[in-house]
Amino acid sequence: MTDQGAFVSALLDPHQACPADLRSWNGSDPTPRFAVHRNNIVVSLVDALAEQFPVTLELVGAEFFRAMAQAFVQQHPPRTRIIAFIGAPFADFIASFAPAASVPYLADVARLEMTRIEACHAADADTLTSDAIERVMADPQQLALVAVMFHPSVYLLSSPHAIFSLWAAHQGALDIADVDPDIAQHVLVFRDGLDVQALQITFGAYGFLTRLRSGDTLAEAAGAAVDTDASFDLPGAIALLLRHPLVTGMEPLP
């Protein structure tokens, strides 16, 4: 019986020979059939990645992307039956993929695209209304005590590159010629109903929300944001919590 690990390894690597102990039902040479099966598997996985990372593909072109995706598939065979998640390690792979070094923002753009997929498939949870959040914030004493719980679909990304603008340009929202990829950007990703949203946020808002997610109270998170960004706009950051379905709970710390 063919070892499963060896079979998978040979299936994804065209340089490996057909497993020696593989047998066909009629006793014929299995090598040609194995080659067809191998090609179909690799092509289908590369096609899936192309669908999941359309902006990443457009930034480097189909030929380069498919070669990179094939190398990824060979080094990172799927570890999940859920096709949407096979690209989870793709951004880290791109960051270490030498031929992509000339496109330094590529890995972070791929990370944004994968984050949107993860947000799409995140668990459901009820979120607080803006009125409920405002009632908590109306008491100044609560600000030093209350911690914020976020919806499972909420993600925060920070990059030294203009990942949001690059992504938005490929949605037709911006002209790619006007985008300076070397400008740092920060992104809030979340699901609103059935739609996944991506919003560019300030560095201060990114720090504020990140500290809230780590368990800081509202007052602690605001103080830390001011320390790292003197221009931090607290009302603007609070407005994010009020306008979008991000918060599932606000409770005093024990």
Structure notes:
- This protein has about 250 residues and is α+β, with helices and mostly antiparallel strands.
- It folds into two domains: about 1-105, no CATH class; about 125-254, Outer Surface Protein A, domain 3 (Alpha-Beta Complex), CATH 3.90.930.
- It has twelve helices and five strands.
- The protein has helices at about 5-10, 30-50, 55-60, 60-75, 90-95, 105-120, 130-135, 140-145, 165-170, 205-215, 220-230, 235-245, and strands spanning about 145-150, 155-160, 185-190, 195-200, 245-250.
- The strands form two sheets. It has a three-stranded antiparallel β-sheet with strand order 2-3-4. The chain has a two-stranded antiparallel sheet with strand order 1-5.
- The termini are far apart.
- The mean pLDDT is about 90.
Write the layout of secondary structure elements.
Layout: H1 4-12, H2 31-52, H3 54-60, H4 62-75, H5 90-96, H6 106-120, H7 130-137, H8 140-143, E1 146-150, E2 155-159, H9 163-169, E3 185-192, E4 195-201, H10 203-213, H11 218-228, H12 234-243, E5 247-252
Antiparallel strand pairs: 1-5, 2-3, 3-4
Helix pairs in contact: 2-4, 3-4, 3-6, 5-6, 6-9, 10-11
Strand order of the largest sheet: 2-3-4
Mean pLDDT: 88
Poorly predicted regions: none
CATH topology of the largest domain: Outer Surface Protein A, domain 3
Q: How large is the share of residues in beta strands?
A: 5-15%
Q: What is the chain-wise order of helices and strands?
A: HHHHHHHHEEHEEHHHE
Secondary-structure-derived class: alpha+beta
CATH architecture of the largest domain: Alpha-Beta Complex
Query: How does the major sheet shape up?
Result: 3 strands, antiparallel
Principal-axes shape call: elongated
Query: How many structurally independent domains?
Result: 2
Q: What is the C-alpha radius of gyration, as a whole number of Å?
A: 23 Å
Number of strands: 5
**Proportion in helices:** 40-55%
Helix segment tally:
12
Query: Which CATH class of the largest domain is shown?
Result: Alpha Beta
End-to-end Cα distance: 58 Å
